[in-house]
Amino acid sequence: MRKFFQDFKAFISRGNIFDMAVGVIVGGAFSKIVTSLVNDIIMPLIAWLMGGKSMSDLKLVLNGVELYLPDGSVNPQALTWNYGNFIQTIIDFIIIALCIFFMIKLAMKLHQSMDKAKESIANAKKNDSDVAEDTSVAEEVKEEAIKTPVETVVSEAQPSDNERIIALLEDIKNSLNKE
């Protein structure tokens, strides 16, 4: 018996169970909201368009007995086909399905936005590491340029380019020494 309670405790303490419980509670509240929307907002409009008849008033007597007794109460012997309630249930279903569709669409759009944000953050981190690598390479080139005498570089160049290379290297060396 003790093992049963330990297993049950492990089962209910899982995160999915709590998520499901929250979903059931929110779903129940959502169902009340949609039912109120249908019964209190949409169905009165439909009844108004139908000349004041409610959907639940739409019925067909199947056995030929009068639906109402002389005192105005419903005849218990009348066998009715309540197609108005069926139509109202279909309208309830369609509205609930539309609401769920819009909620899922919104959730998917938020999920996609979160994925794009995560991807852009990952790209930014990658770019930062690339910049850090480029900076370290630039530092190495800078150190090498400072250490290398201009004459060494000039001696390796073509004789016709010597003057331009010397001027360029002196400009680079001067700009590096200023930093």
Protein model, in words:
The chain contains five helices and two strands, in the order ααββααα. The protein has helices at 2-12, 15-49, 83-147, 150-156, 162-178; strands at 60-61, 80-81. Helix 2 crosses helix 3 (83-147) and helix 4 runs antiparallel to helix 5 (162-178). The radius of gyration is 40 Å and the shape is elongated. The model has no long low-confidence stretch (mean pLDDT 76).
SSE layout and pairing:
Blueprint: H1 2-12, H2 15-49, E1 60-61, E2 80-81, H3 83-147, H4 150-156, H5 162-178
Helix content: over 70%
Widest sheet, order of strands:
1-2
Number-wise, the strands total 2
- Strand content bin: under 5%
**Distance between the terminal alpha carbons, to the nearest Å?**
78 Å
- The overall pLDDT average reads 76
**Radius of gyration from the CA trace?**
40 Å
Q: Helix count?
A: 5
The dominant shape is elongated
Low-confidence stretches: none
Structural class call reads: mainly alpha
